[in-house]
C-alpha cells in the first residue's frame, strides 16, 4: 500500500509540474506582476502540500518585516524556495545548475529566479546591479548566503558579496532561519539535499519519507546604515545560527 501511495504522490507532483509549465507559458505573459506573484505563491503552497510539507511561520521576537528588504536564509533543500514563496513571493538568486533540473529548473527561471555561476566575478557584478534595481522597485529579493545547501545541523560560512546590494539599495537585511522537522520535532532526514544527490533522488526521498514540517523563523531585521557587507553577513549568520539551535540543546555546528 505504501508503494501505491508513493506512486500516486509522484503522479500528482508530475501533473502539478505540468500545470506550472502551462501557467508559465500561457498565463504569465497575460498576467500583471500581482497576478504572477499570486499564482507563484499558490502553486508553491500546493506543491508542498503534495509533498506533505506543512509550513509553519514563526516570529518569536514579534518583529515587523520591512516593506523593502534583502531577504536571506540558510539553505537546506530545493524545497526552501517554495517554502519561502508560499509565504511571500520572492525573486531568488540561485546556482546556475538549478536551471538544469528537469522541469523545475525552467519553472524556477520563469518564476523569477536569477541564476549565478559560481566563481564568475562578472556574473556577480551583473546580478548585483540587477538586485539593487529590483529592491528599489519594491520587489522582494532573496538569496542563500551559504552559496550551497548544507545538511541540517550545519551552517556553512556566509558569503558577503551580495549583501552589498542592501547597502546600495539602502534597505535592511531580513534574515530567516529554516528547518524541517518530523512528527517528534527532530530534524527530518529526508530534507537534506547535499553532496552528489540528484533532484530526482531528493524528490523520491521526500515522497517516500514521513510528512515533515517546515519551520520558517522570522528574525529581527538588520539595519544597514554605516555597516560593511562582511559585518552584515556575520550578523545574519549569528542570528540564524542562534535560531536554529534545537530546543533540546542540540548544538548547531557553525563554520568559521
Note down, in words, how this protein is organized:
The N and C termini lie far apart (47 Å). The model is unreliable at 247-256 (pLDDT under 50). With 256 residues, the protein is of the alpha/beta class. Helix 1 (2-27) packs antiparallel against helix 2 (33-50), helix 1 packs parallel to helix 4 and helix 2 crosses helix 3 (79-85). It has a single domain (2-254), classed as 3-Layer(aba) Sandwich (Cobalt-precorrin-4 Transmethylase, domain 1). It contains eight helices and nine strands. Its EC number is 2.3.1.51. Residues 69-181 form the Phospholipid/glycerol acyltransferase domain.
Quickly list its features:
disordered C terminus, single chain, Cobalt-precorrin-4 Transmethylase, domain 1, 256 residues, two-stranded parallel sheet, 1-acyl-sn-glycerol-3-phosphate acyltransferase, seven-stranded mixed β-sheet, Plipid/glycerol_acylTrfase, alpha/beta, transmembrane, transmembrane helix
Could you give the order of strands across the largest sheet?
1-8-7-2-5-3-4
CATH superfamily: Tetrapyrrole methylase, N-terminal domain
Characterize the overall form: globular
CATH architecture: 3-Layer(aba) Sandwich
What is the straight-line distance between the termini?
47 Å
Helix content: 40-55%
The overall pLDDT average reads 86
The helix/strand series, from N terminus to C terminus, equals HHEEHEHEHEEHEHEHE
Radius of gyration: 18 Å
**Low-pLDDT residue spans:** 247-256
Largest sheet: 7 strands, mixed
The total beta strand count reads 9
Instruction: Kindly name the structural category.
Output: alpha/beta
Number of domains: 1
Could you tell me the strand content as a percent range? 15-25%
Per the CATH scheme, the topology name is Cobalt-precorrin-4 Transmethylase, domain 1
Total helix count? 8
CATH hierarchy, class: Alpha Beta
Enzyme class: transferase
Pathway: Lipid metabolism
EC number: 2.3.1.51
GO molecular function: 1-acylglycerol-3-phosphate O-acyltransferase activity
